[in-house]
Each structure stands twice: as C-alpha cells, then as structure tokens.
Amino acid sequence: MNPPIEFADQGPPSTSFAATQEFQDIKESAHEHLLTRVEELGAEFGRWSAAAIKRFVDLEVEGYIRLKRIPVNEAEIRQVAEALTKELAGFGPIEDLLNDAAVEDILVNGHLDVYVSRFGRLERMPVRFTDQGHLLRIVRRILAPIGRRLDESNPMVDARLPDGGRINVIIPPLALQGPIVSIRKFRKDPLRPEDLLSLGTMNAEIAELLEAAVKARCNILVSGGTSSGKTSLLNALATHVPDTERVITIEDTAELSLNHPHVVRLESRPGGFEGTGVVSIRDLLRNSLRMRPDRIIVGEVRGGEVLEMLQAMSTGHDGSMGTIHASSPRECLYRLEMLAGFAGFQGSEVSLRRQIANAIDFIVQIGRLSSGKRRILSVTEITGLGDNIVSMQELYRYEPLINADGEEMDRWTSLGIKPHSPKLARMRPTTSMFDTRFDV
Prior knowledge:
This protein is α/β, with parallel strands linked by helices. It has helices at 21-41, 43-46, 50-68, 74-89, 95-99, 132-143, 193-199, 204-215, 230-238, 281-288, 305-314, 329-342, 349-359, 422-426, and strands at 103-109, 113-118, 121-124, 156-160, 166-170, 180-184, 220-224, 247-251, 263-267, 295-298, 321-325, 362-368, 374-386, 389-398, 401-402, 408-409, 412-414. Helix content is 35%, strand content 21%. A 9-stranded mixed beta sheet has the order 9-8-10-11-7-12-13-14-17, with helices on both faces. A 6-stranded antiparallel beta sheet has the order 3-2-1-6-5-4. Mean pLDDT is 86; it is low at 1-15 and 429-436. It comes from Imbroritus primus.
C-alpha cells in the first residue's frame, strides 16, 4: 500500500493583506480599470516588454487608488500592483509557484484552495483566485501555447507544457467544486545516480547493482505509486546507457529527459475533437521496432502496449526499461497480466507468464515515505517460471532503523542472494565487482 501523504504544519491562518477579501475586491476593481486602459492602448500594449508592463501597472494602480481614495498604505499598493502585473504578463496567483524551483506539484481545487508539494509534502498556500472565471482564464492562458481546447464539450485536458512540465485540468460538470488543476513540474537538470545517492534514495550497493544491470542490457521495470519518483529514477538509470546506443523513448506525455547523445522522443496523440487521428503508445511502440532501436524506454506502461513491450524485450531489444503503477514487485506482475488481458491476449495464462519471465530481469520498487522522502523499497530479480508461477528473488529490501532519539534512519538489507541473470554473468570477466558482492 502506498504511504499516506502528510500535510505540512500550516500554523495559524494567514492574516496578510493579500489573503483578505479586501485585497481581492481592490485588485478586481483595479483590474477592470487596467483592462479599460489596455483597450485604449490597443496593439501598442502587445509590443511592450515585461519591464514596461510593470511600470505601466505601478503607475496606473497608484493613480487609480488615489483617485478612488481607497484607504491602503504604500506597501499594500505595491502588493496590488505586483498581483496585477502577474495578471497581465504572467499566470496570476500561481506565477511565483511556477517559478519556484522547490515546488514539485501545484494543485488547485477550485478558486479558493491552492496546494503545493515540496519534497514530497503537501502544503496549503495563502493564495487564491478571485472566482472560478478568473481561474479558468489563467488555465486557458497556460493552455494557449499548446493549442489545447477546454470547454463543456471537452472538459478534461492532459498535456505537456512548453517547459517540459505537465498539466491536467478537469472542469464542471465533471468537477463539482469548480476547475481542478494539477501541474507537475520537472527539474531542468534531471537527477543523476550520484544525486539520488546524496538524497538517500538508495545506497551505494544498490546503485552499483543497477548500473551493472543497465550496462549488461537487463530489462528493468520501475514500479511505484503516483509521485513516488519513478520517472526521476528512470532518468537516472538511463545515464548508464552507453553513448554508442540508440534509445527511443515512448510516452503519453513526454516527461523523460535523458542525458544521452542519441535519443529519439515519441509522444502519443489523443486525437481531434471528433476522436480522429488518435495515435496510442501501442502504435508508437509497434512503429519504433522499425526505427532500429538499441533500447526502448516506455515512460509508463498502462494499456495494450504491454504486449508489444514484452515482445520487444524478449526478442532482441535487451536493455529496455519502463515504469508501471504498482504497490509491490508481485503486484507489478499481476498488473502486467491484467493489462495483457485487457489488450486481448489470446494465449494461455501459462504462456503469458512465461513471456513475462523471459522478458523482465529486474523490478525496482520505489515509494514515497510519510516524511515525503523517496526511497527504493525493493530490488527484485525475476528468475524464471516454476509451477506456472513467475519466480522472483528479492536482492535488497528497505528496512529503516529507529535510533535512540526516535528518528528514522535509512537502511537497506541485503538478503544474501546473488543475481541469477546470465546477462550479468557475461560482464564478469571485465567487471571486478562481480568477484565479490555480485558473484553469479
């Protein structure tokens, strides 16, 4: 079971001016004044730089507040002007959150509730939208560069943002409390294995084993729950792929950012308004086999593409990788069987399990702890088929220790089992590490 999300301590409710209804009322009336002035300027306003827009807003807001004799001080005037600058030249109340490198997710539940995730922990923010229309206006501004439509006939959007992030929006009548917006941000510099080591996601022994497995062209599935770090781990593992190999990545929404010189990135297409032109991950995977790949990386396995992926892994495209939503390595295998059944697999249960056992070498289970930390929970090797059941052996297991102060300390237990894969055995003559820990 995935660990529960912990909410950061919010302390007393915010009493800042920006969190008051008075601020919202002043901002709304000043915004209407600014829109009138922008209409008067016409096309000239569209050519202004961000700095020019800021100067314009500062002057107009100060003049408007003094004209209307609104009882606010200089600091509060600056707050109103700053918020309206973000309205005209940015993304309103969430502009600062989008620019905050520590923010991983921005979650908007209607116009009054905004949460962010930092280091795996949810935190409610003292920002809000004026009303549902204001929220929709900002969302449509975010979607405008990617040409995605959002209205009652198309009330759900899942898309990749120009900066590489991902946005998911669902609006009424499907969402009962107003527009629900989920923005997933990704690092501009993807985490490398050494970064995961310093963050404590794994220890040196696991890092060494996974590096050897990637270089030996083992097929690896990264399993875990939502926001557990699957994509970040997959990015890190891909840094071990030799530069001489051609890598093809296939995703629903492109999230992978591999630090590799020869990467071909493919992204599925949801289709047009009438449902035409759909290109699924399964279509892309089937086509990628004709593109001379050395390795295929599937961003997330969640549909009929599981059959093509298993066939590719077991018919010459060793070293392929992917992620899957599952709560344990055994559950990962059950999910593969279920997805294959949904995809119309015609063979027997035994033949499917034999194909899974032949295709996959390792399952790496990653999870997010109650503290928000991401940790590799298990490294499991698939060893074959026995009694019509896929056999596996767990090589490492996460078993934290509690010290005298009650603090949780990371610890991975080696179960004393050595990797069985013949792919790793082929590396033995040139890799000294296999003379000790990974003797096969």
